[in-house]
Design a protein that fits this description.
CATH topology: CBS-domain
Keywords: CBS domain
Strand order of the largest sheet: 1-2-3
Number of strands: 5
CATH architecture: Roll
InterPro entries: CBS_dom, CBS_dom_sf, CBSX3_CBS_dom, Diverse_CBS-Domain
Radius of gyration: 18 Å
Order of helices and strands: HEHEEHHHEEH
Largest sheet: 3 strands, mixed
Oligomer: single chain
Protein name: CBS domain-containing protein
CATH class: Alpha Beta
Strand content: 15-25%
Domain CBS: 8-66, 75-131
Organism: Flavobacterium xanthum
Number of domains: 1
Amino acid sequence: MTVNQILSTKGKEVYSILSTNTVYEALTVMSEKNIGAILIIEGTVLKGVLSERDYARKIVLKSKSSKKAFVHEIMETNVVTVSPSDNLEYCMELMSTKRVRHLPVLENEIVIGIISISDVVKAIIEMQKDTIQHLNSYITQ
């Protein structure tokens, strides 16, 4: 299964903000959309990603104010990305080795979607269910 197949099921909706937004504004959008990370896109260029983990480690634990801090101060700029043709095994390996939970999907340098660890796990579970069902039908024939 490929990233594109996940996006075709999940959808390609992407939420983004600017690096000049406050962290509080970013958290508000993340809460409203029920997402754990938000992309920072300026024009069509992916500049970074801000996750709940970034907030916890770079604002809360350092006693900073989310209403005074700007996204560009705490966002991750070395963003790990994938392409629509990448397979799930590659995504799992990236998520594990790079210790990230979200992978923006880029096609021709433009963000066309984002997948999370839960998206990948759900897809793998569905693939395993299909395999089990196929094996069961093979055995019972």
